């Protein structure tokens, strides 16, 4: 009889790709994927703890499985990812949800197979959270689900210790894959017909840090010179390591998308300092200027945090001003969320929720207005889009141009994975609608 798995993913693209690796392990064990968690023989939750709401979301969804598990006693429930790796959280989960069978962390995903067989033979819960061993595991093969895009890790972990951020604590120290392994994976993906590769790392610009023959710009150049028509993206770039050399590589390689995610977090120098971001707003703007000089039409996107401890109205206004100066194509705006164990969690001067809420609304309104204005400039133009998927609700296919702008369009046949020219007829906020020409 067929056995089924279901993986629920929270958090960033890195976690999405990690879930593809979990799927790889489960399919090797003979499990097949299923849409509904109710049909699963094994349900895995790949969690995130970047902000409190990510955590609550996971806790809520795991809690909802209590009834299902009572009715389906042989079902295995496994929880892994950043949340379980956070100090004390595995025990916490165990106490709250005694029906969970397996709890693992971010460093031992490769042992999931052993945990499953242990659970099946001993009938006891398996809980193991390991410390970062500084290694890169090449044998964790992904069962990819995001055709025509493929995610490719280049670094794991983070050394930056921004004072608000939990990632360095739950993902360990930064380590890089060998460039030859990355290149081999990219070549294979292109040969398999993938049309877009997105390189992943918390800070791709610090790739290898001297431990490989290639720097990040050199690696990008090499990947971009693989034969075939495909797009190359990367995320995330930390502004402090975003170099002119990299900008020049983007400028001369048509396969590298003119779209850079460059999280600024705040426009206030005192907040940036307290965040330990290691750049000033002027330094950030200088990097943007260099980028615009070499790649004038480059789309720049960012992440912003409001309500960091001691953020004043003046600090917040500096963020609004910076957003206006850069003219981001889009931005993710977050309310600061206190994360236990980080430096900022111990800071005095937490900003009242009502103040943070008002600030985030104002910021989102500004960002959305900018995004809308940029979208409107597309109307009447033709853009090249890589078709990614079919939206059954809308009855339309969707794809993205190299700047990351989403477009919807009709097609009689399945065009997923094809590059198409779309004449843009209308813009609705962040997305465009048009027709194939
Ligand atoms: N490595 C990437 C981002 C990883 S987390 C970088 O440095 O740019 C993605 C985003 O989540 C961050 O850019 C930040 O804006 C936000 N974030 C991280 N910790 C947060 C916290 N404690 N509260 C609110 N937002 C946070
Ligand atoms: Fe977190 Fe900063 Fe590392 Fe990004 S660079 S993951 S925000 S510590
Ligand atoms: Fe990503 Fe969340 Fe972990 S954003 S690195 S899954 S804490």
Structure write-up:
This protein is α/β, with parallel strands linked by helices and 437 residues long. It is 35% helix and 23% strand. The chain is built from 14 helices and 19 strands. The strands form five sheets. It has a six-stranded parallel sheet, sandwiched between helices. Helix 10 (244-252) runs parallel beside helix 12 (281-294) and helix 13 (313-326) runs parallel beside helix 14 (353-376). Residues 50-51, 164-165, 167, 202-203, 236, 238, 263, 265, 303, 305, 334, 336-337, 339 line the site of S-adenosyl-L-homocysteine.
Q: Give the overall shape.
A: globular
The count of helical stretches stands at 14
Please tell me the overall pLDDT.
97
Q: In angstroms, what is the radius of gyration?
A: 22 Å
Total strands: the figure is 19
> Structural class of the secondary structure composition?
alpha/beta
Query: Helicity, in percent?
Result: 25-40%
Estimate the strand proportion. 15-25%
Q: What gap, in angstroms, lies between the N and C termini?
A: 48 Å
Strand order in the largest sheet: 2-1-3-4-5-6
What's a quick, concise take on this entry?
This protein has 437 residues and is α/β, with parallel strands linked by helices.
Keywords:
437 residues, alpha/beta, 6-stranded parallel beta sheet, 5-stranded mixed β-barrel, 14 helices, 23% strand, globular, binds S-adenosyl-L-homocysteine, binds iron/sulfur cluster, binds FE3-S4 cluster
Describe the protein's topology.
Layout: E1 3-9, H1 13-28, E2 31-33, E3 42-47, H2 52-63, H3 66-71, E4 76-81, H4 82-85, H5 89-96, E5 102-104, H6 112-122, E6 126-128, E7 149-153, E8 155-156, H7 167-171, E9 175-176, H8 179-192, E10 196-200, H9 216-224, E11 231-235, H10 244-252, E12 259-261, H11 269-274, H12 281-294, E13 299-306, H13 313-326, E14 330-335, H14 353-376, E15 382-391, E16 396-400, E17 406-409, E18 419-428, E19 431-436
Parallel strand pairs: 1-2, 1-3, 3-4, 4-5, 5-6, 7-10, 10-11, 12-13, 13-14, 17-19
Antiparallel strand pairs: 8-9, 15-16, 15-18, 16-17, 18-19
Helix pairs in contact: 10-12, 13-14
The structure holds S-adenosyl-L-homocysteine, iron/sulfur cluster and FE3-S4 cluster.
FE3-S4 cluster binds at residues 11-12, 14-15, 48-50, 82, 166-167, 170-171.
């Amino acid at each position: 009889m067929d056995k089924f798995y279901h993986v629920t993913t929270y958090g960033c693209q890195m976690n999405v790709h990690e879930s593809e690796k979990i799927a790889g392990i489960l399919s090797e064990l003979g499990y097949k994927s299923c849409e509904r968690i109710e049909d699963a023989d094994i349900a895995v939750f790949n969690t995130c703890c970047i902000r409190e709401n990510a955590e609550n979301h996971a806790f809520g969804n795991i809690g909802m499985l209590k009834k299902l598990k009572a009715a389906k006693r042989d079902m295995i429930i496994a929880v892994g990812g950043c949340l379980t790796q956070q100090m004390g959280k595995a025990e916490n989960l165990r106490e709250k949800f005694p029906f969970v069978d397996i709890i693992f962390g971010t460093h031992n995903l490769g042992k999931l197979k052993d945990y499953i067989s242990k659970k099946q033979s001993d009938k006891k819960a398996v809980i193991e959270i390991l410390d970062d061993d500084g290694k890169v595991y090449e044998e964790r093969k992904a069962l990819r689900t995001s055709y025509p895009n493929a995610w490719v890790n280049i670094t794991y972990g983070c050394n930056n210790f921004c004072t608000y951020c939990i990632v360095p604590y739950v993902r360990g120290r930064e380590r890089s894959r060998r460039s030859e392994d990355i290149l081999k994976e990219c070549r294979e993906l292109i040969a398999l017909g993938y049309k877009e590769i997105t390189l992943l790392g918390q800070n791709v610009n610090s790739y290898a840090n001297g431990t490989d023959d290639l720097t990040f710009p050199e690696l990008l150049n090499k990947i971009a010179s693989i034969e075939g028509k495909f797009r190359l993206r990367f995320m995330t770039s930390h502004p402090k390591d975003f170099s002119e050399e990299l900008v020049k590589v983007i400028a001369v390689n048509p396969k590298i998308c003119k779209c850079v995610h460059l999280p600024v977090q705040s426009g206030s120098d005192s907040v940036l300092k307290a965040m330990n971001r290691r750049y000033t707003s002027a330094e950030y703007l200088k990097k943007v200027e260099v980028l615009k000089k070499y790649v004038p039409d480059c789309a720049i996107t960012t992440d912003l945090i409001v309500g960091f401890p001691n953020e004043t109205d003046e600090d917040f206004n500096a963020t609004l001003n910076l957003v206006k100066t850069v003219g981001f194509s889009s931005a993710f705006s977050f309310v600061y969320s206190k994360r236990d164990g980080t430096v900022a969690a111990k800071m005095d001067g937490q900003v009242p929720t009502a103040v943070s809420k008002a600030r985030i609304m104002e910021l989102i309104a500004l960002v959305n207005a900018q995004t809308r204005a940029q979208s409107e400039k597309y109307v009447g133009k033709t853009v090249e889009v890589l078709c990614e998927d079919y939206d059954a609700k809308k009855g339309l296919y969707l794809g993205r141009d190299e700047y990351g702008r989403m477009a919807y369009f009709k097609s009689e046949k399945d065009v997923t994975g094809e590059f198409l020219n779309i004449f843009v007829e209308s813009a609705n906020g962040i997305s465009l609608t048009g027709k194939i020409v």
